[in-house]
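Hi Q.,

Before the meeting this afternoon, I wanted you to have the magnesium ion prediction in hand. No need to reply - just skim if you have a minute. The sequence and ligand are here:
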Amino acid sequence: MTAAVIALGANLGDATSALQGAVDALTQTVGITVLAASPVFETDPVGGPDQPVYVNAVVLLEIELEPLALLRRLNQIEEEWQRTREVRWGPRTLDLDIIDVAGFTSDTEQLTVPHPRAHQRGFVLVPWLAVDGDASLGGAKVTDLARNVDVSGVRKLNPELRLVIAP
Ligand code: ATP
Ligand code: MG
Ligand code: MG
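Predicted structure with the ligand bound:
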């Protein structure tokens, strides 16, 4: 069993349903156990064109899959939500990124782990800390990384929304 951290994001269509749908799909995947999910955050877009606000969350997994097989499954779930890629960092129905996999690094275009931009993203670090206050990434404490990042555009939904992890 290997620990993995996934970031979820969406800003087109029923974005919160997409996040919940992704958690459900992960839960139903052989070789994946969803251990915990952060609350859902509303976040101002970072980079890319003018676009709607996002919802973001982070989920903690235990995987018995190879990281590349996990990536393929994430891409499959994105496709089930009609994810398209027209503009880099453009609006999307669902984005599922691998942030970290315990004991694993990869530096290819297809799969870079730890995720090369996670350390500078409030929309990843803040939800991650909400579900794991002791998290670390590439040898740094996520609390320390978050101190050097603008997190002003990251807001917990009110009322708080929690993703359900079905048994
Ligand atoms: P960003 O990576 O900056 O968050 P993005 O999520 O919008 O951008 P996508 O269009 O979802 O980018 O993915 C582009 C490619 O990134 C995918 O084809 C995938 O193979 C590759 N990729 C590399 N590393 C990762 C990773 N850690 N998690 C998910 N995809 C990755
Ligand atoms: Mg992404
Ligand atoms: Mg992605």
